């Protein structure tokens, strides 16, 4: 329910309280949850925040309260007692409605998967040339176990499976809405949804805890290997359709735009929506400009690497001399799943050499996935005005002490 739809009993409260309450009533964000103070806040309303990169990679499973939050709208207030998920097929009147208890009755399934925003590492692109979007560092990514029911099991209830040929897309509608009551809605290809190896989940737990309000309470979609934007939070409705979703979020946002596109002339609807994500890595420790102690001619660097589409990371390479010599990182944690169902990130550590007397050093990292995709070396040739998909080599400069 929208806050400004509520009738406030002015007569029952002191003037001071009512003024405060009135201010809150006009603020659709007044009922947003509290957030962990380590999150670096990009915008407060809607809330967008990410943890410090060094903290992010301390654990393989990102603690729920420091997991990046990317909200487009106020966090909806959902009551479990009245919650209902609608499942529908386009132009067919029969609507299947599932309440929370119905969903709990379906087989329970857990998937370990990394979620990443298409704008992760946008701030580096912004430094090359100004881009449009939240200025994310390298931490709009996190890894968690997600527990819930398989989308394939829910779709079976309405007779949709991998034999379904008349429809090609699954729309997911969130319960969060803007002031014009537009809901957050996007879609994924039906082929991903009905593929039992696609592991698409309607999750009600994150790292073994009920999903928090910021992350989509009570149910969110997890589309492993696919851009964060399709992992719809506060899921209210699923629609099987012939065409892609026509919402702003599907048609005008989350599109990979060409480097030289003119924002005023480009027809975004004609471009392919971002679905599977490309291979990426980041050095999280030390951070850029940090002072690092050299030990026996080496410094230690740590980070993450991940690829979309279920591709496993097979190697992470680092250089401290602009690419003359590359050093292979050790994996600290990688799940033993094979491609194309490898959904979680890989955490790595590398000891890389520096020369005696060197005051600063630039360290570059690149990852290689199971399709032997590697990262582009510079941002220059992938720059785009929306700052999406920055997966260029991650480069940091650190100051050395001996
Ligand atoms: N779902 C709804 N309903 N509303 C949203 O604003 N943001 C999307 C996606 N799902 C969003 C949403 C985007 S762009 C990302 S990157 C992820 O949720 C972020 O999920 P998180 O906040 O749990 O990290
Ligand atoms: Mo995102």
From TrEMBL:
Domain of life, per the record? Eukaryota
Name assigned to this protein: Sulfite reductase
């Amino acid at each position: 329910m929208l806050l400004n739809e509520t009738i406030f009993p002015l007569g029952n409260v002191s003037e001071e309280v009512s003024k405060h309450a009135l201010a809150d009533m006009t603020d659709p964000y007044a009922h947003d949850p509290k957030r962990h103070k380590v999150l670096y806040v990009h915008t407060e309303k809607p809330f967008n925040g990410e943890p410090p990169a060094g903290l992010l990679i301390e654990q393989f499973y990102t603690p729920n309260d420091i997991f990046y939050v990317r909200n487009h709208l106020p966090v909806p207030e959902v009551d479990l007692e009245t919650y209902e998920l609608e499942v529908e097929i386009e132009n067919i009147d029969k609507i299947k409605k599932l309440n929370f208890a119905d969903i709990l009755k379906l087989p329970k399934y857990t998937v370990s998967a990394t979620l990443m925003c298409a704008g992760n590492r946008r701030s580096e692109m912004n430094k090359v040339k100004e881009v449009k979007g939240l200025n994310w560092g390298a931490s709009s990514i996190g890894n968690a176990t997600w527990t819930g029911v398989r989308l394939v099991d829910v779709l079976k209830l309405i007779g949709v499976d991998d034999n379904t040929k008349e429809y090609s897309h699954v729309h997911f509608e969130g319960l969060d809405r803007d002031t014009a009551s537009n809901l957050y809605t996007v879609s994924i290809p039906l082929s991903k949804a009905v593929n039992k190896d696609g592991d698409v989940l309607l999750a009600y737990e994150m790292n073994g805890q009920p999903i928090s309000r910021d992350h989509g309470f009570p149910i969110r979609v997890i589309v492993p290997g696919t851009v964060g934007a399709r992992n719809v939070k506060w899921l209210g409705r699923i629609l099987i359709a012939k065409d892609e979703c026509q919402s702003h979020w599907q048609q005008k946002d989350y599109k990979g735009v060409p480097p030289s596109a003119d924002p005023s002339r480009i027809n975004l609807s004609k471009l392919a929506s971002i679905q599977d994500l490309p291979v990426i890595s980041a050095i999280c420790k030390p951070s850029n400009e940090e002072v690092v102690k050299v030990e026996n001619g080496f410094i230690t660097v740590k980070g993450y690497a991940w690829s979309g589409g279920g591709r496993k990371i097979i190697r992470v390479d680092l250089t401290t001399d602009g690419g003359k010599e590359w050093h292979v990182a050790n994996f600290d944690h990688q799940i033993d799943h094979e491609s194309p169902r490898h959904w979680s990130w890989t955490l790595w550590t590398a000891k890389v050499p520096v020369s005696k007397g060197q005051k600063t050093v630039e360290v570059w990292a690149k990852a290689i996935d199971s399709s032997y995709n590697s990262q582009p070396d510079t941002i220059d040739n992938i720059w785009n005005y929306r700052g999406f998909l920055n997966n260029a080599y991650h480069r940091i400069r650190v100051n050395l002490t001996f």
